[in-house]
Hints:
With about 260 residues, the protein is mainly α. Among the domains are: about 90 residues, Orthogonal Bundle (Arc Repressor Mutant, subunit A); about 80 residues, Serine Threonine Protein Phosphatase 5, Tetratricopeptide repeat.
Amino acid sequence: MEFRLLGAVEAWAGDRQLDLGPRQQRLLLAVLALQVNQLVAVDRLVDLTWPESPPQTARHAIHVRVSQLRTILAMAGADADGVKIATCGPMYALRADPMSVDAHRFRALVAAARAQQHDEERSRLLRHALDLWRGSPLADVATPRVEELSRRLQEARLTALEEWLSVELRLGRHDEVIDEVGESVVQHPYRERLLAQLMLALYRAGRAPEALVTYRRARNRLADELGLEPGPELRKLERAILRGDPALDLPPEHAT
Length: 256
């Protein structure tokens, strides 16, 4: 049994995708899977499902949704994998192997990468973690309260992406990452670490003028839209590119 939250909410039994029912039911499973093996209060589930003015029947509706999810999981043979939704007073918990939930597998891979001493293995683990993503997390069940959970997951993905890009740049793979980091900068134009990584990749690829154009566009956007200047690290990088600072070159062990 596998639960996927890093995109639309899905559950799979082997190669068969389960029909999890309507949005509120998928949301309920997603919240329980995010906090797998932890008790979640019914009041918390009500609050996430109906951020404003929950109906008087809200708690009953949660119980009904849980019952329907239990039926879906049981019919898919979840018991054989030790998967079930347990009840403890006014609380529920999804009992399952955390590694059956892609969000938890993602975090475990990132933690393993950070513990690695060798860049090649660190890059492999981070890439594996990033490849679990299929789109915006919890994409099809969002409510204003759930978007907060989604933002935290998205922030974790962006941090992992930046870490992977740093490793790739250390390994001399600037040409290979230019397109991916460029697309990420378009999606997250105020994220200065990504901007710096794009500038460095362009510079090392022999495209210093493009790196400087990237900086100037970012500076103008920050000034026009937020009334801000680029941070000190980004300004320092621009100055280093302008003078062709050797410190920007690849470490000797990775230079070709």
